[in-house]
Design a protein that fits this description.
Shape: globular
Radius of gyration: 23 Å
Oligomer: single chain
Strand content: 15-25%
Distance between the termini: 51 Å
Number of strands: 19
Number of helices: 18
Helix content: 25-40%
Bound molecules: 2-acetamido-2-deoxy-6-O-phosphono-alpha-D-glucopyranose, zinc ion
C-alpha cells in the first residue's frame, strides 16, 4: 500500500508554505489550493473507517455559502454526525505533511490509533454544484484506490443528504435503520412523513424558496415530486434562484447568508407584502425565513425563530400526548441567539435553554442530552434530535383519548420528517411549513411571538485573533486580561445591553456582537466594544 499511496500522492502535491486547518466547517478555501487536501482527507477517511471496524464514512465536497471559486471538504461520521473532534487534528496533521512524509504520517497515525490495516474501509461521497468539484473528486478517488477503500459516488447531493445516506448505510438491516439507502429513499421518507404530519392541512398562501443557485434547487424540484403541492392541498411553492449551470451566480446576491447578513430579500425576489419567503445556502444545510411587512418593512425569521417555533409546537404536542413529565424538551443556542428568543423559550414556553460555543457539532452534542433537543444557530443551521426514550414513548404509549392519539401520530411523523443527523434546509422547510399549517399562521403571526432586541454584529480586524480566549460558551473573555471587565463596564451603561467578542473560527478576525434596547444603542455599544478589542 505504501508505494500506491506514494505514487498517488505525487499526483497531488501540497502547495508549499500553505498551512491548512480542519476548522468548524472542515477544510475550506480557494478551490485551486484544495487538491492535496482532498487527497489526504481521502486517506483520513480510510483510516477512520478502518478504526471503526469498516463502518462507512461520508466525504462531502462543498464550500456552502462561500463564493463559487471556493471549495471545501469535510468528513461525516457513521451516524451522520460531524467528524469526532480528535480526528480534526489528525486531518490537519496529514494535510500539512510534506509530500515526502505523507506515507510516514499515515502509518504513524495508524500505529498511534491502533488501526488494523487489514480491516475493510468504506466511504461514500458527494459534492455540490461548484465547477471545481469533479477535479477534487478525482483527488479523493486516487486516495480511495491507493488505500483499497470501497466507495459509492453519490454525485451531486446537498450536504444533509450525504449525512442522511451515511447514517442509512451504517444502520441498514438493523432495528435502528434510518431509511432506504438511496437519494430516492430520502425523498420518499420526507414525502411520506410530510403527508402524515400535515394531516390534510394546507398552508396559508405560498412560499417563495430562494435556492442560492446551488444544489438545493434541483434537489427541491425532485422532492416536490413526493409531496402534495398546489391544487391537491399541501404546499404552494415558488422556486427562485435555481440556476446551477452558471457557476458565477452561486450564492451571489441570494441565499441564506446574503439575506441574514444584509438583512434584506434577494433582489430577484418578486414576493409581495406578507408573503412567506425562505432562502437556502449553497449546500442546503441552512434556511432563513423572511417577509415584507407593509408597516415595518423587511422582517427576518432566522434560526432563533425556527427554533422557538419548533420548540413551542413539539412542546405542545408532548403535553397533548401526555408525555410532558416523562420527556425532557430543551433548546440549544449559541451566544448569537437574540436575547429575546432566549427569554421567550425560558419564560413563555417554560423550556430550558443551553448555550454552547459556535459550530454545529457543539450544539448537536448538547441537544442529544435532551429527549427532544431543538438546536439552531441564528444563521439558520439547525435541527431537532430525539432520544431513544422519546422514540420509544412515541411508538409505544397507549393513547387515552383521540387527542392524545393524534398528538402521538404527529410526533411520530415529525421524527421521520426531521433530518436528525444535521441541519437540513429541505427538511427544516417542511417542518416550518407543517407547523404554520397546523397553526394557520401567516409569517406575521409567527413574527409577533416575540420582539427581537436590536442587535449589531461587527467584524474587527486585529493584529492577532489568537490572543482572544473565551470561556462560558464564548460569552466571557479570559484573555487578554482585563478586557472582559472593561467590556462589562461598557455594557452596564446600556438598557438591556449584552455583548461579547470572540475570535472567528473561519476568518482572520474578531467578531463583536451587541444588543440593546434600541437600534442606536445597539450600534453604539457594538462600536464601543469593537474599539475596545481593536
Ligand atoms: C462554520 C459553522 C457554522 C458557524 C460558523 C461560524 C458548521 C458546519 N459550520 O461555518 O455553524 O456558524 O462556522 O463562523 O459547524 P465564525 O467562527 O467565523 O463566526
Ligand atoms: Zn451550508
Amino acid at each position: 500500500m505504501d508505494s500506491k499511496i506514494l505514487a498517488a500522492s505525487s499526483k497531488h502535491p501540497k502547495p508549499v508554505d500553505h498551512v491548512f486547518q480542519y476548522g468548524t466547517a472542515g477544510f475550506r478555501m480557494k478551490a485551486s489550493l484544495l487538491d492535496s487536501v482532498v487527497f489526504r482527507v481521502g486517506l483520513v477517511a480510510a483510516l477512520r473507517s478502518r478504526k471503526l471496524g469498516g463502518q462507512t464514512i461520508g466525504v462531502m465536497i462543498t464550500a456552502s455559502h462561500n463564493p463559487p471559486e471556493d471549495n471545501g471538504v469535510k468528513l461525516v461520521d457513521p451516524m451522520g454526525e460531524m467528524l469526532e473532534n480528535s480526528w480534526e487534528a489528525y486531518s490537519t496533521e496529514l494535510a500539512n505533511a510534506k509530500d515526502e512524509d505523507v506515507v510516514k504520517v499515515y502509518r504513524s497515525l495508524e500505529q498511534k490509533l491502533k488501526i488494523n490495516p487489514d480491516t475493510a474501509s468504506r466511504v461514500i461521497y458527494a459534492r455540490d454544484t461548484r465547477p471545481s468539484g469533479p477535479k477534487l473528486v478525482q483527488a479523493l478517488l486516487d486516495a480511495l484506490h491507493a488505500t483499497g477503500t470501497e466507495y459509492t459516488d453519490y454525485k451531486l447531493l446537498t450536504t444533509p443528504q450525504l449525512h442522511y445516506l451515511t447514517r442509512c448505510t451504517n444502520t441498514e438491516g438493523t432495528p435502528q435503520s434510518y431509511g432506504e439507502v438511496s437519494e430516492k429513499g430520502y425523498y420518499e421518507k420526507l414525502g411520506k412523513a410530510f403527508k402524515r404530519a400535515m394531516k390534510g392541512k394546507k398552508t396559508v398562501g405560498s412560499v417563495t424558496v430562494d435556492c442560492a443557485n446551488g444544489v438545493g434547487g434541483p434537489k427541491l424540484a425532485e422532492l416536490l415530486k413526493y409531496i402534495p403541492t398546489g391544487s391537491d392541498g399541501g404546499l404552494d411553492i415558488k422556486i427562485i434562484n435555481d440556476d446551477v449551470l452558471k457557476a458565477e451566480v452561486l450564492n451571489h446576491e441570494c441565499g441564506a447568508d446574503y439575506v441574514k447578513t444584509k438583512q434584506r430579500a434577494p433582489p430577484s425576489s418578486k414576493a409581495g407584502n406578507n408573503e412567506r419567503c425562505c432562502s437556502f445556502d449553497g449546500d442546503a444545510d441552512r434556511i432563513i425565513y423572511y417577509f415584507n411587512d407593509p408597516e415595518h418593512g423587511f422582517r427576518l425569521l432566522d434560526g432563533d425563530r425556527i427554533a422557538t417555533l419548533a420548540a413551542s409546537f413539539i412542546g405542545d404536542l408532548a403535553r397533548e400526548a401526555g408525555l410532558a413529565s416523562e420527556l425532557k424538551v430543551g433548546v440549544v443556542q449559541t451566544a448569537y441567539a437574540n436575547g429575546a428568543s432566549t427569554k421567550y423559550v425560558e419564560k413563555t414556553l417554560g423550556l430550558p435553554v443551553v448555550c454552547t460555543p459556535t459550530g454545529v457539532k457543539w450544539l448537536h452534542h448538547a441537544a442529544t442530552k435532551f429527549d427532544v433537543g431543538v438546536y439552531f444557530e441564528a444563521n439558520g443551521h439547525g435541527t431537532v434530535v430525539f432520544s431513544q426514550q422519546a422514540l420509544k414513548a412515541f411508538s409505544t404509549k397507549e393513547p387515552e383519548s383521540p387527542a392524545q392519539a393524534s398528538a402521538l401520530e404527529t410526533l411520530r411523523a415529525l421524527t421521520d420528517l426531521i433530518n436528525q443527523t444535521v441541519g437540513d434546509a429541505l427538511s427544516d422547510m417542511l417542518l416550518v411549513e407543517t407547523i404554520l399549517a397546523h397553526k394557520s399562521w401567516t409569517p406575521k403571526e409567527w413574527d409577533l411571538t416575540y420582539t427581537d432586541l436590536p442587535n449589531r454584529l461587527v467584524r474587527v480586524e486585529v493584529a492577532d485573533r489568537n490572543i482572544f480566549k473565551t470561556t462560558n460558551a464564548e460569552r466571557t473573555l479570559v484573555e487578554p486580561q482585563g478586557t472582559q471587565a472593561r467590556l462589562d463596564q461598557l455594557v452596564s451603561k446600556f438598557k438591556d445591553g449584552r455583548s461579547f467578542a470572540r475570535a472567528s473560527g473561519t476568518e482572520d478576525a474578531v467578531r463583536v456582537y451587541a444588543e440593546a434596547a434600541t437600534r442606536s444603542e445597539a450600534d453604539d455599544l457594538a462600536s464601543k466594544i469593537a474599539a475596545l478589542v481593536k
